[in-house]
Write a structure and sequence with these properties.
The protein is built from five helices and five strands, in the order βαβαββαααβ. By secondary structure, the chain is an alpha+beta fold. It has two domains: 84 residues, no CATH class; 66 residues, no CATH class. The strands form two sheets. The chain has a three-stranded antiparallel sheet. Strands 4-5 form a two-stranded parallel ribbon. The two termini are 31 Å apart.
Length: 174
């Protein structure tokens, strides 16, 4: 059986400064002089699993447990320090509210922008546009800049686009 998502011995480490750096100037000076000390924070350590075709996977845990980091790996937004991540198929990630959108562009323009990020060309998005707007219930707002949208409107638009492009894998975070 071919698994659409396979993680093998995956680890992700972040380097966090030990002391608070108050400005870019301070950061540049300390960095240049080699005076920034870091501590390691392992967001994920030796994670192995596979998701069978057609299955849904839910990930729960406390803040800082690595849930969003794991989803970013599957979405191909980041790479692990160790291990391998294999993802087969078209992925529609909804990881951060408004991620992939430009808040200065209109709702209409953002549909095409987000579609292109997901690998859908303009002609295909033209075919899907009406269904996206109807599903999101944003008919009266598509010419307004996204900065005028509420967070709920942005989420509905992103979800409508993600559904319309018919992904093999959909990733939802909070």
């Amino acid at each position: 059986m071919e698994f659409p998502i396979v993680l093998q011995d995956v680890s992700v480490r972040y380097r966090l400064p030990k002391e608070r750096i108050r400005s870019i100037k301070e950061y540049v000076i300390k960095s240049f002089r080699g005076r920034i000390e870091y501590e390691e924070f392992w967001a994920l350590k030796n994670i192995t699993f596979q998701v069978p075709p057609g299955e849904m996977l839910g990930i729960i845990g406390r803040n800082g447990a690595g849930k969003s980091t794991l989803l970013k790996l599957i979405a191909r937004v980041m790479k692990p320090i160790y291990g391998t991540v294999q993802v087969a198929g078209k992925v529609a990630p909804m990881i951060e509210l408004g991620g992939g959108f430009d808040h200065e562009l209109s709702g209409r323009d953002n549909v095409y922008l987000f579609g292109s990020i997901l690998g859908i060309n303009r002609r295909e998005m033209n075919k899907k546009f009406g269904a996206i707007v109807e599903f999101a219930e944003l008919e009266d707002f598509m010419e307004a800049p996204l900065r005028a949208f509420s967070s709920g409107m942005i989420m509905r638009l992103a979800f409508a686009i993600a559904i319309a492009v018919e992904p093999d894998i959909m990733i939802l975070d909070e």
